[in-house]
Amino acid sequence: MRGFGQALTPINLLWVFLGALLGTAVGVLPGLGSSVAVALLLPVTFSLDPTAAFIMFAGVYFGGLFGDSTMAILVNTPGGATAIATSFEGHRMAQLGRAPQALATAAIGAFLGGLVATTIVVFFAPVLADLALFFGPAEYFALALFAFLATASAVSDFVIRGLVSLMIGLILAVVGIDGISGTQRFTSGVPELFDGISIIVITVAVLALGEVFKVAYERRQPQPRAGKGAAGRPFLSLREFREALPAWLRGTDFGVPFGVIPVGGAEVPTFMAYGTERRLDRRRRSPQFGKGAIRGVAGPEAAGNATAGTAMGALLAMGLPTSATAAIMLAAFQQYGLQPGPMLFERNADLVWPLLASLFIGLVVLLILNLPFAPLWAKLLLVPRHYLYADITMFCGLGVYATSAAVTDLLLVLAIGVVGFLIRRFDVPIAPLMIGVILGPLAETSMRNGLLSSGGELSVLWSSSITWVLYGLMAAVLAVTA
Description:
Elements (H helix, E strand, L loop, with lengths): L1 H6 L2 H18 L5 H9 L8 H26 L8 H12 L3 H34 L4 H18 L4 H15 L2 E2 L6 E2 L13 H19 L20 H21 L8 H16 L12 H24 L5 H12 L8 H4 L1 H22 L3 H5 L6 H20 L2 H19 L5 H23 L11 H17 L1
């Protein structure tokens, strides 16, 4: 209650509002996204006192996630990797004139997922952090393998295409210097590739530039127009709300535990939520996936924000950054001479509790801010495509160059963008590629660390009860989707 008392002062409410607004604005730009939004806005807060700075970051934190989803829904170019799963059905809804409803579904799902997760963090932050201690190299490897096969088999009608996409992602993931042996892999002797290919480069190339190339390829075809619903109600009908509610709840269930497991962010639970909704949809008399299924937006959005909420708990209670955004937040804490962990709640309670209270306030501010503006965002669909996608191409280049200042990355974006176009051209799913890129390094490192610690004994990879549960779930998923 004291935390709310501090967070609800007029000046701190202003910082939350500005953070939400700026986070959303930066998050919508292809190649930037929520993590870059926090990084870019970090210097802005140096002149503020720590409490005000982190209250502003609470708005940026969730605002960036919503910005990621906005462009994913409207023009199929996610601001960040966490919005990839949302783009599949969300963009289809936008093409059918239901962009405001898709944005409203995303906003409400983000609110519900974040609200549940943040409430859990307030009461159970130490318990949540303890859960992560049960995961060792074998468990992380099993988790990554489960995510690989579940995604490859769930998001495509042809498992072979999903596996091809996964292999492309894994190949991109292993470019660079091997961290254990120091061997160069797929670098062709180019020094700029020694550190590997940035996830930002791959995300921008495959998701944004690949979509631009696809639109350019289809330039002779009639331009799809947003239907009458593009300027319609920014809220959901009772029927749509009832349709989305189970997916919101299931997505939240996926997202909450993943926030305390360092697997790189919300990509895994969002894809798992999407795959679950897709499998459930196949059992219906009239499947909606591929036609703009509202559950395909609701599940991933709730999962993404639920993960972000509990990730904040893991950061505060244990000092464990479980995503790129949380890692930047950790750097922000250290900038102010603070070290997240169990003692933070005792030594800096005057900072922690206003920050947690501002997370609740930030969620409410984002809901109030974005629901009425959903029709306004949807009007982006009325911009002529050649202007819109020219701007997207420009922001792709600016976003990538701003993060690395390397011309090599611009050339990589162009080359991988062609791969992204070919994937779309031949109906190969994108999700397995992205999950391979994101979790490939985790899977490889976990497997090799497990084998090194056991002297090369393979049985270490399935020696715990958690690994048996994950492999059992993997077998069940393959049996259902086969």
